[in-house]
UniProtKB/TrEMBL annotation, chains A, B:
Pfam families on file: MerR_1
PROSITE patterns linked: HTH_MERR_2
CDD domains attached to this UniProt entry: HTH_YyaN (cd01109)
Superkingdom classification of source: Bacteria
Keyword DNA-binding: yes
Organism expressing this protein natively: Ruminococcus flavefaciens 007c
Domain HTH merR-type stretches: 1-69
Name of this protein: HTH merR-type domain-containing protein
Gene3D superfamilies: 1.10.1660.10
Key words, A-Z: DNA-binding
Amino acid sequence: MTIKAVCSKFNVSPDTLRYYERVGVIPEVHRTSGGIRDYTEDDIKWVETATCFRSAGMPIELLIEYVRLFREGDHTIKARCELLKEARDLILAERRKIDDALEKMDGKIKVYERAVETGRLEWDDNSCCCCNKSKE
Amino acid sequence: MTIKAVCSKFNVSPDTLRYYERVGVIPEVHRTSGGIRDYTEDDIKWVETATCFRSAGMPIELLIEYVRLFREGDHTIKARCELLKEARDLILAERRKIDDALEKMDGKIKVYERAVETGRLEWDDNSCCCCNKSKE
DNA sequence: ATACATCCTGGAGTTAACTCCAAGTCAATA
DNA sequence: TATTGACTTGGAGTTAACTCCAGGATGTAT
């Protein structure tokens, strides 16, 4: 599969894929005799994992470390397992932050939706943490 | 409240708070006669909102726009409401990506945990999307 | 009144993660 | 076989969001 096809499959740019390969976010991709990238099934699955984890905010550094361990062989299985658990904790923490923000946001949105009808903001101190009182 | 106290309350650096004020992520903070920042209740709530939304990955640009609208007065209530909804959609999309990644990660972790016991990786094609087969 | 810690500003520097570019190679078409 | 368009590399440039710094002002404890 050409780089272009992989790009549109995962919605990333060719530069990004080449960059991932260069810095080791994914292992080296299979090439044609002419030196042009020709992604195998496995290559594509690496890209899938990398783009998925990246879009969740997992730092590139961790992915590089994972690939490094993978290349070292089966004696790094435990280390890879630890790394994945560490990564999961990191992403769970992200989700907690997102949920906090969503709660705060929903409170504000409710106040604003009422305000759009009544014409005046009425902050409700315990449902919404709001700095943004309408000055009166 | 001094900048230092606000910093330790929200676990950010003084530089970050000054930066937020400078670029308009929060409105101007109250000062002592000498020109030193002395955060009021309201100032602190703005900081709370900003740090909360930022840590969920909401871009600074949106926060700046929100503050800009806020300063314009009550005729921007509808616009602010729209902006908040847009921000919520953005963050909900983030959460979906996170949930996708978590699912993929949990699949991998399960495989690795089994492998730590048995000594060999056994990928289960439909429970886990995995590029990282142990070569054999 | 003198240290000494803390604060101020404007501007430069840093980091992660791309993104762009020039100069050249490869492959499909006319 | 010549053209055209996609691909290659190494390296430089960009962007968001801080982070650091120099040189100076402020505030508090002795």
